[in-house]
Amino acid sequence: MKFQPRASHFIDGEYVEDTNGAAIEVIYPATGEVIARLHSATPAIVEQALNSAKNAQAAWVALSGTERGRILRRASDIMRERNYDLSVLETHDTGKPIQETTVADATSGADALEYFGGLAASLTGEHIPLGGGDFVYTICEALGVCVGIGAWNYPTQIACWKGAPALACGNTMVFKPSETTPLSALKVAEILVEAGAPKGVYNVIQGYGDVGASLVSDPRVAKVSLTGSVPTGRKVYAAAADGMKHVTMELGGKSPMIVFDDADIENAVSGAILGNFYSSGQVCSNGTRVFVQKGIKEAFLKRLSERLAHAKIGDPMDEDVSFGPMVSENQMNIALGYIEKGKAEGARLVYGGERIERDGYFVQPTVFADVTDNMTIAREEIFGPVMSVLDFETEEEVMARANDTEFGLAAGVFTNDLTRAHRIVAGFEAGTCYINTYNLAPVEAPFGGSKMSGVGRENSKLAINHFSEMKTVYVSMNDVEAPY
Ligand code: NAD
């Protein structure tokens, strides 16, 4: 098989297999064909990976930040050089069009390796002068062994967004990709070793939820960073709490996008397309509740439908194709189920709404209008190409409705009124907000959610705080005063 890796796991600098583990079939979502066969990690593999990460950490953290950073930056260069091959792999793993994977996956992973590689040398504590000559200094220390657990929508990016800051701080990592898209994290591990990372610094093991759970509960693990759904997040957070482990939770969303009458309509339509149909709608921060002010509603829907007719749907390896299949049959059926609920609950179908008759798991880009706040499609995360358009009249009304959700990942506003834009984002209960654009996630900016959408932030300097802790050292320059 063309995409069959040498073995399922990458531990201590080498490919490792244990065929006793449950089978994992990797399916190309555009055709339904099996492109690789792997095995879930057995307890022996989990043990090997955690031991390897534990043993490698002391030497890794003893390197200077400059040396660690150099390795990460070299890995970033290698990823960029191999961008096309990595993108082909990512397209087969996920079904996302090559048009997308060549610009948003390995390149975004490389950005993280470069950015955190650049920061590694400047991760220092501070000197705090006190009265009478005493002072405190702080030391920025690594946490130890970190576990990364990934979702299936951005496998390379997630492997790097977690690995790069962890390694920059002097931690080692065991990463478990999603069982649906297990291939590209192995390439990240290979590349890190090629770039000079010592054996055991970054390990990848495959597996279903039980493997993730066994990693989270292991006492050798100091930190868990999960990208996944809210139900999984709840379980992982609770298991991590038992061992008082650090966590980062990047979970699901049902984010609002508000379009005011005065917005640039082309930009608003572009934002709504990016925020609902990129990666066939399988993006956590998608703005799936599009609130459109009544005055431009019909113009917005008309232009949206015209633009959607230009989506080129088909073979994701065709460079002209801009809309591919969903990741799996299961995910397709979930999306189709929500589409049926939308119809049954009285939303008006404006565009799409059907499975596409061809091999693979294709669902039409779908738009519902006249959606009301209590409809299922307006409340639950669909994680598919289904946009809900809701009407609104006033700013006050839309603000309350936008925030009326358990989620708080992202939120966006389109308006040409400067003060209103800032007022709206100040009112959003969401971790990542956009004004007159949507869904950009540069590595320089913190990314993450509030409310049920998560804990902690990825990317930016803030990610360092989530992969390190400060040690405080009080230094006395005076005699010790004791009461007796
Ligand atoms: P999921 O929650 O089903 O699985 C995520 C990962 O957790 C997988 O690797 C899975 O094997 C593992 N897992 C499952 N049960 C576990 C357990 N008990 N202990 C430890 N690990 C366990 O999510 P998914 O279907 O792979 O991905 C889609 C979800 O991810 C959506 O909700 C989406 O919004 C979210 N997501 C969030 C972000 C973000 O940055 N906020 C990014 C991408 C995806």
- Unreliable sequence segments: none
Helix content: 25-40%
Number of helical regions:
16
Spatial strand sequence of the major β-sheet: 14-15-16-13-12-17-18
Integer-rounded radius of gyration: 24 Å
* Beta strand %: 15-25%
Number of strands: 20
Mean pLDDT: 98
Terminus-to-terminus distance:
78 Å
Overall shape: it is globular
Please give the largest β-sheet.
7 strands, mixed
Q: Which class best fits the helix and strand makeup?
A: alpha/beta
Describe the structure.
The chain is of the alpha/beta class and 484 residues long. It has 16 helices and 20 strands. It has helices spanning 43-62, 65-81, 83-94, 98-104, 106-119, 155-168, 184-194, 209-216, 230-242, 265-277, 297-308, 329-344, 376-379, 395-403, 418-427, 462-465; strands spanning 9-11, 14-16, 23-28, 33-39, 127-129, 135-142, 145-149, 172-176, 202-204, 221-227, 246-250, 256-259, 289-293, 348-351, 366-369, 386-392, 410-414, 432-435, 454-455, 468-475. The strands form 5 sheets. The chain has a 7-stranded mixed β-sheet with strand order 14-15-16-13-12-17-18, with helices on both faces. A 6-stranded mixed β-sheet has the order 9-8-7-10-11-19, with helices on both faces. α7 links the parallel β8 (172-176) and β9. α2 packs antiparallel against α5, α4 packs parallel to α5 (106-119) and α10 packs across α11 (297-308). The structure holds nicotinamide-adenine-dinucleotide.
